[in-house]
Design a protein that fits this description.
Layout: E1 3-7, H1 12-23, E2 27-32, H2 40-49, E3 62-64, E4 71-75, H3 81-91, E5 95-98, H4 107-110, H5 112-132, E6 137-143, H6 167-186, E7 190-195, E8 198-199, H7 208-217, E9 222-224, E10 231-232, E11 235-236, H8 237-247, E12 272-277, E13 283-284, H9 285-296, E14 302-304, H10 320-326, H11 334-349
Parallel strand pairs: 1-2, 1-5, 2-4, 5-6, 6-7, 7-12, 8-11, 9-14
Antiparallel strand pairs: 3-4, 10-13
Length: 351
């Protein structure tokens, strides 16, 4: 039975991935700092849903799930080098999935140091721990935001990503470069995943679906940026988790066909790969809002706003590499995914 470390398990994607990996028979150690970037009670709720007794949490103490004997959790900061190394030394992980990070494009405009501490220094600690305690596969979260000013659609992992428009995006590109260095120097197999606007039940309250739904339920206006002329490759959480699960036991290998004279940035002569993971179907923001209105049965009051610094007008994922390598097939249409979220929201908040 393989043992997986999943960081960020009080977070949205990590919470769902824990469920999937336990169902598939893996041992899972979850890790999260449980910071207050957004409502900490939602993070506690996710942990409790997966059987973690929040009242027993102590920093750096591993506690067991009440629901599944193969699941344990530790509250730990990525930037805590000493405790990260002790955790890896003690547990001997087979696979690491690093989803923990300081998230949010707009937050990076006012809190830049949080991104360096968590996303740069913290990721370095993960890489160093994998170097000292070799793993068969390191999967880590990148972001569609790395495409920045690139306007060539759909976004391809073979395209240039040298023009980020937020520090958050720059930190994620840095993760890709750092991972390649460690794959090249120390043979650590690594897969970077550029996530495209993930949504669904237990989603983040700073993301559009949650913000819009919450405002509509409370009869509050919603702010629609770029006057509604936005498109996003909205990707349902189950499709994301299915994609990640297909990679767990299939680490990248060195590729001798890689041409250093004409380098493809998506792979390398090192055991290193980059993938977009999205729905491959951009949706107009106003259509997304309409799906929320239909699911709730209530119209939104929209306040049109200009484009915000750090935002991009459109995202669209080319997932052909993920399809060919892992038979990845996102199946959830926006209307269905939004409906699942609204049902969860009603149950969780009692509205």
């Amino acid at each position: 039975m393989k043992k997986i470390l999943i960081t960020g398990t009080a977070g949205f994607i990590g919470f769902h991935l824990v469920k999937k990996m336990l169902q598939s028979g893996y041992q899972v150690v979850g890790m999260d700092s449980v910071n207050d970037y957004y409502d900490i009670n939602l993070k506690y709720g996710r942990l409790e849903e997966n059987g973690i007794p929040v009242k027993e949490m102590e920093y750096a103490k591993i506690i067991a799930s009440r629901e599944n004997s193969n699941h344990r959790f530790v509250q730990l900061q990525l930037e805590d080098k000493g405790e990260i190394m002790r955790l890896f030394d003690k547990e001997s992980f087979d696979v690491v999935v690093n989803l923990a990070a300081q998230a949010g494009v707009r937050y990076s405009l006012t809190n830049p140091h949080a991104y360096i501490d968590s996303n740069i220094s913290g990721f370095l600690n993960i890489l160093e721990a994998c170097r000292a305690n070799p793993v068969s596969n390191l999967i880590y979260a990148s972001s569609s935001s790395v495409y920045g000013l690139n306007a060539s659609m759909p976004f391809s992992v073979k395209s240039n990503v040298d023009h980020p428009v937020s520090l958050y995006a720059a930190s994620k590109k840095s993760n890709e470069l750092m991972a390649h260095t460690y794959s090249h120097l120390f043979g650590i197999p690594s897969i970077g995943l550029r996530f495209f606007t993930v949504y669904g039940p237990w989603g983040r309250p700073d993301m559009a679906l949650f913000l819009f739904a919450d405002a509509i339920f409370r009869d509050q206006p919603i702010e629609v940026y770029n006057h509604g002329r936005m498109q996003r490759d909205f990707t349902y959480i189950d499709d994301i988790v299915d994609g990640i699960s297909r990679m767990i036991d299939h680490p990248p290998e060195k590729n001798e066909s890689w041409d250093a004279a004409h380098p493809d940035p998506s792979f390398s002569s090192a055991p290193y790969r980059l993938y977009n993971i999205g729905h491959n179907n951009p949706v107009k923001l106003l259509d997304f809002i309409a799906a929320i209105e239909n699911a709730i049965g209530k119209k939104a009051r929209m306040v049109m706003k200009p484009m915000q610094p750090g935002d991009v007008e459109k995202t669209w994922a080319d997932v052909n590499d993920l399809i060919s390598d892992f038979d990845y097939r996102p199946r959830t249409p926006v209307e269905e995914g939004v409906d699942h979220f609204i049902k969860w929201y009603r149950a969780y908040y009692g509205v």
